Amino acid sequence: MPDREGYRSDVRPSGVGLACAGGVVEGAFYEIGALCALEEAVDGLDLNALSAYVGVSSGAIVATFLAAGVPIRELSRAVAGHAEPPLDFRPQDLFRPDWLEFRRRLRRVPSATVGAVRRFLRDPGDMGLLGAALGLGSLIPVGLFDNAPVERLVADVLAHRGVPNRFDAFGPALRIVATDLDSAEAVCFGTPEWDGIPVSRAVQASTALPVLYRPVEIDGRHYIDGVARRTVHASRALETGAGLVFCVNPIVPVDLRSASSDERHAGSGLMDAGLPLVLSQTFRTLVHSRMQTGFRAYRHVFPNANTILLEPDAADRTLFFSNVFSFANRQAICMGAYEATRSWLLDHADEVDPVLAPHGMSLDRRALADRNRTLFGRPCDAPSTRAADEAMDRLEAVLGRMEPA
Predict the structure, then answer these.
(1) Using CA atoms, how far apart are residues 6 and 249, in angstroms rounded to an integer?
(2) Are 341 and 31 in contact (CB under 8 A)?
(3) pLDDT over 70 (residue 93)
(4) According to the model, what pLDDT value does residue 1 have?
(5) How would you write 321-354 as a 3-class SS string?
(6) I want to staple 17 with a disulfide (CB 3.0 to 4.6 A). Which of 11, 52, 286, 377 is the partner?
(7) How many Å is the maximal CA-CA distance in the chain?
(8) Whole-number Å distance between alpha carbons of 131 and 154
(9) Residue 389's pLDDT is what?
């Protein structure tokens, strides 16, 4: 949940920004749930009217849609499968096999095999048969799936909203971060030197997570997921002059120490889960540690700015063990993020309110304490619900004064 060490309440900065990290598709579901809770809980916060938006990986999709004016509640309806076109996409559409990449690699089989045999026969004792076989690594596809549907989704949504597919068409600052594969340098699309790239293409590049998706080529360079360089890239929003940046990061390692003894005896540890989850835990541990280092640096580089970081509790296993192909699962992730964020904000209201106050915002503690509010149940869009609640309060007060003595 939010980073308590990032709070500073002794400043009056100028703008409010949002930075969304990655986490594949389920990471976007988490971010949407958390942001629904945030906008509902904070009086004066409009997630479509911020001064800066930064997106990385799947967070680039969320940030772009919000910057384009898509309400966060509309995105939550998309998660629930109740959105209108073009937001009525299926997660399965984002996991189509990259047949072009497979064919490209298959065409290399004859020449690569001949090369490996020649290296072995030239000097069998140098690296052995196994070493020669490792030279066939160029035959392995660099990505399993094609993320072209991501580019089409973003382009279609922008067109539907009447927003040109250009960075300079956005009122607020929009920054999409990817990583240059050949130099390992972070590239921030939307800055002056990179604002000529279509927004949808930049988002596609930022979401190109290695192994899942092949790198995206733009102007002769290849780009991969921006998380490869840094997790949240909140500094990109702070650099625009934002004095308060809400950051959402779904990428945290899981902590299974709270598992019950029965679960442990049943072999529910990560060793029994197989290589994919072991690699996931390793990746999450590395990027989360790097993110924590980055947030400590922000306090020195941007001493007059505040950051509020929303992220899952490490003990919550829902996101880590999620199945991105499950319709019910994506709703569970979104709802879990919504409920956890509401709970944290209520528990730490005394810490958060002083950070919000310089920006004309405050927590609606009454809304946070309302246990009847749900994400996909009764409608609870913040503005309309608060107005109805306030009207009922006034009516009750009037009726109370009319009661006979």
Answers:
(1) 14
(2) no
(3) yes
(4) 42
(5) CCCCCCHHHHHHHHHHHHHHHHHHHHHCHHHHHH
(6) 52
(7) 107
(8) 44
(9) 44
Residue type, 332: A
Other CB atoms within a 10 A radius of the CB of residue 153 amount to 21
- Read off the tokens for 259: 């598992």
Distance in angstroms (rounded) separating the CA atoms of residues 314 and 26: 16
For the chain, the three-class secondary structure string (H helix, E strand, C coil) is CCCHHHCCCCCCCCEEEEEECCCHHHHHHHHHHHHHHHHHHEECCCCCCCCEEEEECHHHHHHHHHHCCCCHHHHHHHHCCCCCCCCCCCHHHHCEECHHHHHHHHCCHHHHHHHHHHHHHHCHHHHHHHHHHHHHHHHCCCEEEECHHHHHHHHHHHHHHCCCCCHHHCCCEEEEEEEECCCCCEEEECEHHHCCCCHHHHHHHHCCCCEEECCEEECCEEEEEHHHCCCCCCHHHHCCCEEEEEEECCCCCCCHHHCCHHHHHCCCCHHHHCHHHHHHHHHHHHHHHHHHHHHHHHHHHCCCCEEEEECCCCCCCCCCCCCCCCHHHHHHHHHHHHHHHHHHHHHCHHHHHHHHHHHCCEECHHHHHCCCCCCCCCCCCHHHHHHHHHHHHHHHHHHHHHCCC
Q: Which two tokens stand for residue 369?
A: 């304490």
Name the residue among 390, 35, 22 with its Cα closest to residue 208: 22
pTM of the model: 0.81
Two structure tokens written together for 206: 């930022």
Tens of pLDDT along 295-336? 888 888 898 899 999 999 888 888 888 765 565 688 899 999
Q: Are 11 and 338 in contact (CB under 8 A)?
A: no
User: Which carries the bigger pLDDT value, residue 286 or residue 41?
Assistant: 41
Task: Give every CB contact of residue 82 below 8 A, 6+ residues apart in sequence.
Answer: none
What single-letter amino acid sits at 161?
A: R
Would you state the torsion angle of the CA atoms of residues 36, 39, 42, 45, taken in this order, to the nearest 10 degrees? 170
Query: What is the distance between the terminal CA atoms of the chain, rounded to a whole angstrom?
Result: 50
Per-residue pLDDT tens digits for 10-29: 433 469 999 999 878 888 99
| Residue 11: per-residue pLDDT | 38
